[in-house]
Hints:
This is N-acetylmuramoyl-L-alanine amidase. This protein is an alpha/beta fold and 253 residues long. The chain is 40% helix and 26% strand.
Amino acid sequence: MAGVILDAGHGGYDNGAQFNGRREKDDTLRLTLAVGQALRDKGVPVQYTRQTDVYQSPIEKARIGNESGADYFVSIHRNSSPLPNTYSGVETLVYNDSGIKAEMARNVNRRLSEVGFNDLGVKERPGLAVLRRTNIPAILIEAGFINTVKDNELFDSRFNDIANAIADGIVDTIGSGQQELGSTYRVQIGLYRNFSNAQYALNEALAQGFDGDIVYEEPYYAVQLGEFRTLDEAVQLENELKQRGYDTLVVKK
């Protein structure tokens, strides 16, 4: 089954584009995690270049993608223009406009246009390291202009629809024959209204050697660890976490 590695653009001291206190690195991380969950729900194996607010150079992001074993690399960004409220819409960037990556880019744009974005097309950007240095088909999605009020309003009001649209565009490309996953079990260690609080909790868990991510379940951010086919496996992790002082809940997906 084809797998995807998702890259949240920027991170750490690299805020990306900014507008009225809004930072690209925050929008991209939230959206990337939501897209990842939508893909997992459709049975697509997902990895991430980052799940927290850390800096990685574009070359490092490409290296992580190449070493991941994934079949596709999808980087998520927000666009920006020199003057606010000048442009509106989504565009997807590729190294060159050919092959399955170009097909995926068009499918993603089409799905996002159904949510309400203007489709600004597929553009070649051979100079971008995450597109030039990846050894697997790669696209970079510019999910609306961060300095255009109209696009931000759509980004916030239709956030889940946007995440699902990107996931649908990817699945449209890699095939409809993939089977959705059966029930899986995860251990939840926190539920937060504030994304930064969820991120802090995840960072602590990752630092202790656990594997997990943030799952957006409107209006909350859930920090969930592990992913198991059996309840017994999840309970084993839950017991270990309880011994370390965590409040836990096993959830079935």
